[in-house]
Each structure stands twice: as structure tokens, then as C-alpha cells.
Write a structure and sequence with these properties.
Helices cover about 35% and strands about 20% of the residues. By secondary structure, it is an alpha/beta fold. It has a 9-stranded mixed sheet with strand order 4-3-5-6-7-8-9-14-13, with helices on both faces. A 4-stranded mixed sheet has the order 19-18-17-20. Helix 11 packs across helix 12 and helix 13 packs across helix 14 (about 410-430).
Length: about 450
């Protein structure tokens, strides 16, 4: 059996996850300290990059706050020295993730590999061993809230559920790779789950969902909001029991819109390519950080701690489960506030508020009248996958006009703009848009917030 899935390891970690959930906040801290010491010991022994970056005298008991911060760019530039398995090489992994026929396939028979979407301007490659995947599996299975425990009393194994994943299916992205892995190790999941590309024209996506008739929808908040609109119009006709969202910020207004349009119970989570299962919503609707397996330090623009309860400029992430590709005080651009008060649900895990990607959906004129909504994830995927551009700013002028700015210049920039123009016009045609006017500009830096994270897709004012 592949070491990417080990039932005994999953069982052992699951027991610990359940015990921690029923324990105290102090027990969570003790788990953090113990796992951080193990992470530091392995990293200092096997990661040449961290050996060079760590201050003299650093050991397994060095407090986290005394260690240096790292960025994705720094780590990716030193990838082969960063990882602790010398068999992992960036050029080989790049070639692997370029092959869409191998999505969900274990690398070297023991690692799951996915790519990031490049929202920071630097796409990443992330490698997870069997231990990390078991942690993700246990956290997803045991800490997602069960808001309707009686709904499945006649179907305790949920054999009657049909899961529809709507997302980016054209690349080795974390959510899709994870889903493909689950389907490969669980025949029932494979038989009752279907994936739908977020790049499909809305009318085609709606028709496919109607035909599949899912009971659980797994997608991004912007996509769920669009489908809720389709349901309210009568075009989408599915009877959903649950909607699982993640990967983007879910505002209160969007939550209400989704719940009213799609029905069922909305269950939101917080994760990233760096750590899939960072947070989960309890039955009281509050987001809890899985602090026994991940450390988040909310900081300002100079990496100084912010007071409890105040939103950060960014967070420093330390992954306590992954020793093959250590992430220690890694800069993540999300705005996060960690609240000092315990939740009334009784969980010992801290309550957090998260504001992640803030890109907009664009409402454009349709070819045959009316309008078409373009999702930010679909637009960014088109530019990343089809044009090979990761650092860009796409601004809507009106319902027929867009402005695309790239920071590149010269021949390289002109070639990139030509690829972007071709990709965007082909996507607009496939989506049924009226002919669009695309103005392009080179040599303009991408606007970024205080967090340093780019706001890449901006709608015009209503």
C-alpha cells in the first residue's frame, strides 16, 4: 500500500485529534510545544536552507518568536536545499505538475504534490507526506461541525449523499488533488463524487449539476454565490443538504445569499495550499483554529505581534505536521484576528476571524442580452494556466471593457500581454460575452494591500 495512506496512522492521529478536542486549552499548548520541538529537530538536521538561516545556537527548544521569518519566494528559490528528502527536486516536480494526467498521483509512491495559484506573484510547489495527509484527513473528518446530526440517522454512513466539487480542475491544485486522492483510496467516494470545472460556461455548469443532482456542494464562496443566483432564477434545480465553502473570504452578506439561494446548511472552513485544514466552524458559527497542528502568529507589516482580537497585516504560519517541507514562521498574506475569549461551544481551540483573498466577481454584458458573471478564480486560472502570468491586475471599466496591467516590460512583457489577450478573449467567447474591449498596460506594479497580498481582480463601481 502507498505510504500516502496508512489506516493505522490515521487511526492513531484521529484518536489524538478527538482527545485534544475534549481536553483543555493548556493541553493544546503542550501539543504545540512538543510538535514544534520535533519539527525543529528534524529541520535542523536535514534542511540545508534552514540550517543556513537559523541563528547560531538554535536547537529544538528555541522559542518560536526567536526564529527568522521566511517568504515563499525565498523558499522556492532554495527549494532543493529547503526540503528534507534529497530525492525531491524542483525541476522534476514542476514537470510533474505540468502533466494534468497525473493529478492526484503520489510522487515517488509516498508524497502528494500540489501547486499554488500564485496569488502572491510567486507560484509554489507543496509536498505532503503520509503523516501530513493523515492529519488533514483526521481534522476534516472529526472537526467539521455536524449542524444537523439527526439528518443522517437513517443513513449513518451517508451512502445516499452525492458530492459535487466545483473548482479548478485543470491543474494540480490542493483541493482537487486531495479529492482525487480520496477517490483513489475509497471506491464509494469515487462512485458518489463528481468534479465540475469552474471554467465551464455558467449555463453548461448549471445543466451538468442539474443532471448529477448533488446533495452536497463543495466549492468557493464566489462560485456558491453565483450558483445561488442561478437557483433563485429557477435555472439551477438541486436539493442540497449541505454546502461546503472554503478558499476565499465568506462575508456575512454572501453567506445569507448562499443559504437563501441554495438551501441546506452552509459549512465554511479555512485552509491554504500551505496547510489544508487550518480552521473549521463550530455549531455556533465561529471559526476555530486547529492550533494543535498549526501555529498562526498575527503580525503587522514589520512582523511585530498584534494585540489579541485585532486584525493582522499578515500571519506567520508554522506547520507542525510536515517535516519533509518545513514551514516555520512562513509569511501568509491573510488578515487574521485571534480572539482571547473561549467559544461558548466549549472547544479548547482558539477562535479566529479570517479575511483572505478579496478579488471581485465581474458582471459583463452577454452576447445575447443580459449579463454574465465571471468568477475571480476562473479568471485567475485562465491567466495563470493559459497565459503563464501570475502577477497581474485586471480592472473592469464597464460591462464591456477591461484593463489588464502587468509589471513586466520589454519583449517579455509584450509576449505575456499577447498570451493574456488571446486567453481572455477565448474565455470571454466561451462564456457567451459580448465582444470585450481589453486595454493592456506594461510596467505598472500590481496594487497590493498592507498585507502585501495583491488584489488582482477588481470590479467597477455599481
Amino acid at each position: 500500500m502507498s505510504t500516502v495512506f496508512d489506516l493505522l496512522r490515521l487511526s492513531r492521529i484521529s484518536l489524538d485529534v478527538m482527545a485534544a478536542q475534549r481536553g483543555s486549552a493548556q493541553a493544546i499548548v503542550q501539543r504545540q510545544r512538543s510538535r514544534l520541538a520535533e519539527l525543529l529537530e528534524t529541520t535542523l538536521r536535514h534542511s540545508r536552507l534552514y540550517q543556513q538561516r537559523m541563528p547560531a545556537g538554535t536547537n529544538a527548544s528555541t522559542p518560536l518568536e526567536q526564529l527568522p521569518t521566511v517568504t515563499r519566494t525565498e523558499l522556492m528559490e532554495g527549494f532543493d536545499d529547503w526540503v528534507t528528502d534529497p530525492r525531491l527536486h524542483l525541476d522534476e516536480l514542476r514537470a510533474f505538475t505540468a502533466d494534468t494526467q497525473r493529478i492526484g498521483e503520489p510522487w515517488l509512491g509516498r508524497y502528494m504534490v500540489w501547486e499554488s495559484s500564485g496569488t502572491t506573484g510567486q507560484p509554489g510547489i507543496f509536498v505532503q507526506d503520509g503523516h501530513s495527509m493523515a492529519v488533514y484527513d483526521a481534522l476534516e473528518a472529526l472537526r467539521r461541525s455536524a449542524p444537523r446530526p439527526l439528518a443522517h440517522w437513517m443513513d449513518p454512513l451517508r451512502l445516499g449523499e452525492r458530492h459535487a466539487f466545483v473548482g479548478a480542475t485543470s491543474g494540480h491544485f490542493a483541493s482537487y488533488v486531495s479529492l482525487q486522492r480520496l477517490c483513489s483510496i475509497n471506491p464509494w467516494v469515487a462512485a458518489t463524487t463528481r468534479s465540475f470545472s469552474i471554467l465551464e460556461p455558467v449555463q453548461d455548469l448549471v445543466a451538468a449539476l442539474n443532471a448529477f443532482a448533488p446533495t452536497v456542494l463543495i466549492t468557493y464562496p464566489t462560485a456558491a454565490a453565483l450558483l445561488a443566483q442561478e437557483a433563485q432564477s429557477g435555472r439551477l434545480r438541486v436539493a442540497l443538504r449541505e454546502v461546503w465553502t472554503g478558499g476565499e473570504t465568506l462575508s456575512p452578506a454572501v453567506r445569507v445569499h448562499i443559504e437563501q439561494g441554495l438551501g441546506g446548511v452552509l459549512r465554511n472552513s479555512y485552509g491554504a495550499s500551505e496547510f489544508l485544514a487550518m480552521g473549521w466552524e463550530c455549531a455556533h458559527g465561529r471559526m476555530h483554529l486547529n492550533a494543535d497542528w498549526v501555529v498562526l502568529e498575527p503580525v503587522d507589516e514589520r512582523n511585530r505581534p498584534v494585540p489579541p482580537g485585532e486584525p493582522s497585516c499578515k500571519v506567520l504560519l508554522t506547520h507542525l505536521a510536515n517535516t519533509v517541507q518545513p514551514l516555520i514562521r512562513y509569511e501568509l498574506g491573510d488578515h487574521v484576528a485571534i480572539h482571547p475569549q473561549a467559544c461558548t461551544c466549549g472547544s479548547p481551540l482558539p477562535v479566529i476571524e479570517v479575511r483572505g483573498r478579496q478579488d471581485d466577481a465581474l458582471r459583463m454584458a452577454a452576447r445575447n442580452g443580459g449579463s454574465v458573471t465571471l468568477l475571480p478564480l476562473a479568471l485567475s486560472t485562465v491567466l495563470e494556466e493559459s497565459a503563464g502570468v501570475f502577477d497581474f491586475h485586471l480592472r473592469q471599466v464597464d460591462d464591456r471593457s477591461l484593463v489588464l496591467r502587468l509589471p513586466m516590460e520589454g519583449e517579455e512583457g509584450r509576449a505575456a500581454l499577447a498570451r493574456c489577450r488571446t486567453a481572455l478573449k477565448a474565455f470571454a467567447e466561451a462564456q457567451g460575452l459580448a465582444p470585450i474591449r481589453l486595454r493592456t498596460e506594461l510596467g505598472h506594479p500590481v496594487p497590493r494591500g498592507r498585507s502585501g497580498k495583491a488584489c488582482r481582480i477588481v470590479a467597477c463601481a455599481p
